[in-house]
Write a structure and sequence with these properties.
Length: 203
């Protein structure tokens, strides 16, 4: 499989209530030399996360132990509107996945970032601005508030209150996410059907 399959994720969240977070802020250009997906998580939000001497910036959310689970990175990032804008670098999605996030919730995603995320196993969930505000409010009141992201039923729920909202996803991308497929894996899964069709065309 290309990446972890995604079904239902119930987890605590990391809040990043900033709008217009672009891909250069997610992973600065100087870290784009590598061609493998591994290692980018160390530099996720690098310039917000670290000082020039590589010491952690204590006021940045990823350095706040309140938003970890006994030192383990959380799996859901809740972000402000227009997340992933700017350049089309796929490395931004790689960095988010490599850090440990499996889902990003926002009220709007840049299209290319959204596509890149779906291609590598991150579920971008678009909710209304009103529901996004409810999620941020819930996390502010209780940093351990849980959110459930149900991909089969395309629904995101605030566990404490039961409030929920549906979200859209392309059917093909949903199938791949549920199975942990990238585009090549999808084709591989259809080898027998492709061979059967090819045989019919040549007979």
């Amino acid at each position: 499989m290309a990446y972890d399959s995604f079904n239902v994720l119930k987890a605590t969240c990391v809040p990043l209530p900033l709008e217009n977070v672009d891909t250069d802020q997610i992973i600065p250009a100087r870290f784009l030399k590598a061609t493998k997906r591994e290692g980018f998580g160390d530099n996720l939000f690098r310039d917000w996360r670290y000082n020039g001497d590589d010491s952690p910036k204590v006021d940045f959310v990823l350095n706040n132990t309140t938003y970890t689970d006994n030192g383990t990175p959380r799996k859901i990032l809740v972000a402000g509107r227009n997340f992933g804008s700017g350049s089309s670098r796929e490395h931004a999605a790689w960095a988010i996945y490599d850090y440990g996030f499996r889902c990003v919730i926002s009220s709007f995603f840049a299209d290319i970032f959204k596509g890149n995320s779906l291609n590598i196993g991150i579920l971008p969930v678009t909710v209304s601005p009103e529901f996004l505000d409810k999620i941020f409010t819930a996390i502010e009141a209780n940093p351990n508030a849980e959110v459930e992201v149900d991909l089969p039923n395309q629904k995101v729920t605030l566990v404490a209150t039961g409030e929920s909202e549906g979200f859209d996803i392309n059917g093909y991308k949903k199938h791949n996410m549920l199975n942990g497929f990238d585009d090549i894996d999808y084709l591989q899964s259809m080898k027998s059907e492709i061979a059967e069709f090819s045989q019919k065309q040549t007979s």
